[in-house]
Amino acid sequence: AQAQQAVVSTQSTGAHMAKVTKGFSGADLTEICQRACKLAIREAIERDIEQEKRREQNPDMDEEMEDPVPEISRAHFTESMRFARKSVPDSDIRRYEMFSQTLQQSRGFGNNYQMPTAGDGAAEGGAAQPTIDEEDDLYA
């Protein structure tokens, strides 16, 4: 989300980030992006201060005010990755995946479920309509 709102260098490769952050949660990735963004802001402030000092020393200097750090660079992400950590262990992810699979199977929907096609008789009214018991009807 943070990277969508900021200008990220074309040198920063999303594919590489995806590879090295496999197993990271969304919050972990957000933290990496926020840290890279903050590093870029700090660098911009430092450069702006340096520019102001040069201007004070030489008032005749006609230096255009441009963004000193126009984008979040690869260096910002590299520095940010030094602090990156996975907050969810692989064992918890495997446990969740097993629970999800068990829950899916207990509900009766497996990987083999398919919606009926038009020729199966359901579209022709051949399927029985479910009845609603008055106790189950929320609007009765």
Structure explained in plain terms:
The protein is mainly alpha-helical and 140 residues long. The protein has helices spanning 2-5, 14-20, 26-57, 74-81, 90-106. It is elongated. The chain is 49% helix and 0% strand. It has 5 helices and no strands. Helix 3 (26-57) crosses helix 4 (74-81).
Biggest sheet layout: none
Sum up the overall morphology in one term: elongated
- DSSP summary: helix tally: 5
Unreliable parts: none
What number is the mean pLDDT? Answer: 79
Order of helices and strands: HHHHH
User: Radius of gyration, rounded?
Assistant: 28 Å
Helix content: 40-55%
End-to-end Cα distance, whole Å, is 45 Å
What would the keywords be for this entry?
mainly alpha, 140 residues, 0% strand, elongated, single chain
Strand and helix map with partners:
Layout: H1 2-5, H2 14-20, H3 26-57, H4 74-81, H5 90-106
